[in-house]
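TEACHING EXERCISE
Course module: macromolecular assemblies
Task: Read the component lines below, then compare them to the predicted structure of the full complex.
Student: A.B.
Group: 4
Components provided:
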Amino acid sequence: MSQRAERLQEEEKRDLLDPLMAEGWSVMDTRDAIHKKFKFKDFKKAFKFMQGVAVHADRLDHHPEWTNVYNKVDITLTTHDCDGLSKRDIELARHIEEEAKNVSQQ
Amino acid sequence: MSQRAERLQEEEKRDLLDPLMAEGWSVMDTRDAIHKKFKFKDFKKAFKFMQGVAVHADRLDHHPEWTNVYNKVDITLTTHDCDGLSKRDIELARHIEEEAKNVSQQ
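Instructor-supplied answer key:
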């Protein structure tokens, strides 16, 4: 994305984040960022999920901060450009949810 | 791997770790584990590296603890089975070095 990201306003943040919070995302205490822990059957599934997310990250030119330990993947999303949450995080989080569901159902 | 991993003895640890230390790996202060930070040109390269490592991890049935933020990948290796470093960590670290070199040279 070439356009500079704009930090979400409080009201818009609530509207956009509510559906993600319902899926288990949470807003971090220490940063203007959202976070979720995913757990899969094994490493193979966890990494398959990461591969799916990486495709979206590449396409959106927006990247997660993520940690993988065996079947677990912890993801934090924020936008360095605007030093906080932007619509890019919401969009990436939605794709992440789809990927997690796809991989878990396979 | 079906065989239970054995924790490396001090002398054998020195011999096996020396070549890895020369490549920039370090032994952690807080855990019997080794650690290295890798940096690539961009996310695409970093993730390509991770994909290469994942193939080895799967084959060896031994997995890294790793964090990726854009072009950076921080890796910690230890063996939960024996609560410390084993030959599996050394073997995986060697493959990780090869993958990093391959991806950086491409």
